[in-house]
UniProtKB/TrEMBL annotation:
This is SH3b domain-containing protein.
Amino acid sequence: GLVYNIRAYLSEGAVPVLLGQNHDSAWWTVEEPNFSATCWIADQFVTVQGNLDGVPVLTPEPTPTMEPSPTPEQKGMKVYLVALNTGGPFGCDDGLVYFYTGKKQTDNIEDDIESALNVLLKLRTEFVGDYYNPTHNAHLHVNYVEVNPATGRVVIYLDGSIPKPADVCEAQRVHDQVWETARQISGYRDVTIHVGNKLLGDLIAVGDR
């Protein structure tokens, strides 16, 4: 399908500024005032009120490049990156977006989680397009993973080091990115991560938000 950048998140009940519409009013151009983000939103997600006679008809930007049809390898394990300052529920008003690793999900949950995390932790690029990678300066790899199918609990053991985040927002971005990557298998949401003999959560903690 077509992939568009996330410009902002609109919370339920938000009242953005209406700027325009497309030719059949199936899409509306709005501005999210808190983030000054101008974006298109489909009509099924909003209720438009008032006199619409004067709303200009605008032409959307050219559509992005069509992605190739997904193959089984593209539908497997994912890694998460951060969409900064988009009004989302992660970090400090950030969002998360995912990318497929090219690794298919198997029947071995330990191997699947290890595979996805190692792809993420080997990514040394700070930005992938518009999306931020808060673990770009970490030097970590997965030693082993333990899962308990009865409880859905996952314990991950990493080796290496990670710098102390600069602030609470950065610490939360690291946490959200790593934990959501580890939690992507349905039924396994209770995740504990160790680095050596310390908890990763303790290593990245910098104070109250």
